TrEMBL record:
Keywords: Amino-acid biosynthesis, Aromatic amino acid biosynthesis, ATP-binding, Cytoplasm, Kinase, Magnesium, Metal-binding, Nucleotide-binding, Transferase. It catalyses: shikimate + ATP = 3-phosphoshikimate + ADP + H(+). Substrate binds at residues 33, 78, 133. GO terms for molecular function: ATP binding; magnesium ion binding; shikimate kinase activity. GO terms for biological process: amino acid biosynthetic process; aromatic amino acid family biosynthetic process; chorismate biosynthetic process. Its cofactor is Mg(2+). Monomer. Pathway: Metabolic intermediate biosynthesis; chorismate biosynthesis; chorismate from D-erythrose 4-phosphate and phosphoenolpyruvate: step 5/7. This is Shikimate kinase.
C-alpha cells in the first residue's frame, strides 16, 4: 500500500522527520502516538500510568495493527516493536525504515526519559532500553538509515535517496 513507516528509539526524530518527509513526498502524515490518544481519549502518559507498560503495549499493538491507509508516512512510537502483530501488519502495508542513532546522541537529545513517558521496565535505564531494542528495530526494518550527525533536512534527503535506490 505504498506507505513509509518510521521506527526507532524515542528521540530518533520519527515524528519530526516524518512530517517533513510527508511534505517532500506529497504523502499524508500519521503519528501513531496521536492515533492512540484519539482512540483511547486519554493522553499517552495517562494510559501508561493507568494500564501499566504491558497494558500500554497491548493498546499500541492493537491500534497499529488496524492502521489502514495508503501513501502515508507513519511515525510510530518507540515501543511499537514490542507488538508482533503490529509490526507484521506495518511491514505488509509499506516500507519500514529504522532511524538509527548512537546511544550517546540519543542520551544528549532525550534529557529525562522518565518525564517523556517512555516504556521503561522497573530498574531499566536508557542504555538497557537501547541494547534491548536495537536488535528488534533491526529485525523489523526493511531499510536502516544511519542518521548520526544529520539534521532534519539531511535525514529527510537520506530517506528519500534510500527509498529511490530500493525501487
Ligand atoms: N535530525 C535531528 N537533529 C537534531 N534534533 C532532532 C532531529 N530530529 C529530531 N530532533 C529533535 O529531537 C527531539 C525528538 O524528536 P521526535 O521527532 O519527537 O522523535 P521521536 O518521534 O522519534 O521520539 C525533538 O526535540 C526534535 O526537535
Ligand atoms: O519508546 C517508547 O517507549 C515510547 C515512545 C513514545 O513515542 P516516540 O518514540 O515518538 O517518542 C510513545 O509512544 C510512548 O510514550 C512510549
Ligand atoms: Mg514521536
Amino acid at each position: 500500500m505504498n506507505n513509509i513507516i518510521l521506527i526507532g528509539m524515542p528521540g530518533a526524530g520519527k515524528s519530526t522527520v516524518g512530517v517533513v518527509l510527508a511534505k517532500v513526498l506529497g504523502y499524508q502524515f500519521i503519528d501513531s502516538d496521536l492515533l492512540i490518544q484519539e482512540q483511547e481519549q486519554r493522553l499517552l502518559k495517562d494510559i501508561i500510568e493507568e494500564e501499566g507498560i504491558e497494558g500500554f503495549i497491548q493498546i499500541e499493538n492493537k491500534v497499529n495493527s488496524k492502521i489502514n491507509v495508503s501513501h502515508s508516512i507513519i511515525a510510530t512510537g518507540g515501543s511499537v516493536i514490542y507488538g508482533e502483530e503490529a509490526m507484521e501488519h506495518l511491514r505488509e502495508i509499506g516500507t519500514v525504515i529504522y532511524i538509527k542513532l548512537s546511544y550517546e546522541t540519543l542520551e544528549d537529545r532525550l534529557g529525562n526519559i522518565k518525564q517523556r513517558g517512555v516504556v521503561l521496565k522497573e530498574g531499566q535505564n536508557l542504555l538497557g532500553l537501547y541494547n534491548e531494542r536495537c536488535p528488534l528495530y533491526q529485525k523489523y526494518a526493511h531499510v536502516i538509515v544511519d542518521a548520526e550527525n544529520m539534521d532534519v533536512e539531511n535525514a529527510v534527503e537520506e530517506i528519500v535517496r534510500l527509498i529511490n535506490t530500493k525501487q
